[in-house]
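Try it yourself: sequence plus S-adenosylmethionine, in.
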Amino acid sequence: MGKAWVKARHRDPYYRAAKAQGLRSRAVFKLIQIQERFGLLYPGNTVLDLGASPGGWSRAAAELVGPRGRVVAVDRVSMIPMERVTFVRGDFTDPDLHTAILEALGRPADAVISDAAPKLTGHKSLDVARTLDLARSALTLARKALRPGGSFVAKTFQGDGYRTFLREVSEDFDAAKGYTPPATSLGSSETYVVGLKKIG
Ligand SMILES: C[S@@+](CC[C@H](N)C(=O)[O-])C[C@H]1O[C@@H](n2cnc3c(N)ncnc32)[C@H](O)[C@@H]1O
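Structure, out:
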């Protein structure tokens, strides 16, 4: 990373707040803002968190679902164990991993949340396409894992294919919305697709 990037990061209020509060990543503020906007996670819920490492979203989700709820976190990269969070290591785009994920859940999930992102190449159209591929895989898994009425969140970028994906989500949910949390880095086209109330 260049010096300008390091400087910008240190000026970033969300990065500074995450450090000051001992949080695992600044990404946690995005989930909190999505939660404030849509109210997706409730005490007692079972949540599937895809692309979970280093664990900011998992920890926030575990706090929101409380002692009667639980979180199953999936990532290719391991993360430090947390109370109420079961970690499954692997690639969630691989259907072979789905059985292990569904077993770890033990019951249909109330919410599937995905902050999964590929290693960015800097080639915008490639990064947009790869992120959308991950979001689409998260939707495939959500179709198997979510209970009727459950909710879905996936990280995407606005760009080619974004509108098509939003339409695909709207086929499985009562409503599909795009939302860019204020904590998203300035100038980024990152946005989250939210599916409300899974049909059937
Ligand atoms: C932006 S980070 C997630 C940050 C996390 N939400 C937090 O709050 O700490 C994106 C994560 O997606 C994971 N990821 C990307 N592709 C994946 C895949 N196919 N299967 C599992 N994890 C994946 C990466 O390993 C990375 O840890």
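One thing you can check immediately is this: The pocket of S-adenosylmethionine is lined by residues 24-25, 27-28, 51-57, 74-77, 91-93, 115-118, 134 (CB under 6 Å).
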